[in-house]
């Protein structure tokens, strides 16, 4: 990852190794962070075209940033991912390996 991006992430409180891919960082940041202003700023930075983290990246369980944000009730992140005019296609009906969608995960965890 670009050293400047690593520095910007560090300024937002996110400790990242330069050899970690932005896709992995995006998913882990959404999993570990609370729904704060810093979290939204970090997600915006990772989704910037110069960094180009892939919003559709999934881990071995099929979880994307959208799934994790829905499961954790991270409304600021969800708004950013799903906003009109986004250059990303958020697959809201795309299931994880056990068949659950982002909506299922949100409902299971009491966020809707």
Strand content: under 5%
CATH superfamily: Ankyrin repeat-containing domain
In the CATH hierarchy, the third-tier topology is known as: Serine Threonine Protein Phosphatase 5, Tetratricopeptide repeat
Distance between the ends: 36 Å
> What is the CATH class name?
Mainly Alpha
Give the domain tally.
Answer: 1
**Mean pLDDT, as a whole number?**
76
General form: globular
Helix-strand category:
mainly alpha
Task: Sketch the topology as an H/E string, one letter per element.
Answer: HHHHHH
Describe what you observe in this structure.
With 112 residues, the protein is mainly α. The protein has a single domain (3-108), classed as Alpha Horseshoe (Serine Threonine Protein Phosphatase 5, Tetratricopeptide repeat). The protein has 6 helices and no strands. It has helices at residues 3-11, 22-32, 37-47, 65-72, 75-82, 102-108. The mean pLDDT is 76.
Summarize this structure briefly.
This protein has 112 residues and is mostly helical. The chain is 48% helix and 0% strand.
């Amino acid at each position: 990852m670009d050293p400047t991006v690593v520095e910007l992430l560090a300024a937002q409180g996110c400790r990242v190794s330069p050899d970690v891919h932005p896709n992995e960082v995006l998913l882990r940041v959404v999993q570990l962070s609370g729904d704060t202003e810093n979290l939204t700023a970090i997600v915006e930075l990772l989704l910037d075209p110069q960094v180009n983290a892939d919003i559709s990246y999934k881990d071995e369980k099929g979880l994307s940033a959208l799934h994790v944000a829905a499961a954790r009730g991270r409304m600021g992140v969800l708004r950013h991912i799903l906003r009109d005019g986004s250059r990303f296609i958020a697959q809201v009906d795309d299931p994880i390996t056990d068949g659950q969608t982002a909506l299922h995960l949100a409902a299971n965890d009491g966020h809707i």
